[in-house]
Amino acid sequence: MALREIFKFGDDILRKKCREVTKFDDKLAELLDDMADTLKNADGVGLAAPQVGILRRVCIIDVRDGKGVLELINPEILEKSGSQTGNEGCLSAPGEWCEVVRPATVKVRAFDRHGKEFTLEASELKARAICHEVDHLDGVLFIDRVEKTIPQKS
Length: 154
Ligand code: CO
Description:
Elements: H1 26-42, E1 46-48, E2 58-61, E3 70-81, E4 84-88, E5 98-102, E6 105-111, E7 117-123, H2 124-136
Antiparallel strand pairs: 1-2, 2-3, 3-6, 4-5, 6-7
C-alpha cells in the first residue's frame, strides 16, 4: 500500500491542464494502485491524478456500488442530460461542501489501464463524481461550478 500526498486548494498544480496518457505501462498501473489506496484511506468517492501531483488525464471513482474502483484514463464526456443538485466536496478541500448542479446522467468514453477503450453511462452520484473528476483534469474545481454561495459571517 502506497499513499500519495493529496494537494489542497490553493496549490497551483490543481489549476493546470493535464496531458493525455500515451503509455499504458507499469508506471500507470502503479499510479492507479496508489490512487486507489489514497482514495480508500481518505474515504473519498473520487480522485484525479493532479490531486496527487501528476498532470496526466487519469481519475478514479468509487461510489461503493459493488463494482469496485472505476478507472478512467483520457476520459471524455460524450453526452450529458438532465440535471441534479446536491452537496459536493473534494479531497483537496477537506470539510468544504457546496451545492453544485451537475448533469443527471452522462455518457463517458475512456481507456482502461491496459489501453482498451470503453464507454459507460452513469447517473446519480456516479455521474456527479465523473463530472467532478474530469473537471480536475482541466484545472477546474467544484467551487468554480457553484452558482449560489451562502454568505458567511466574517
Ligand atoms: Co475533487
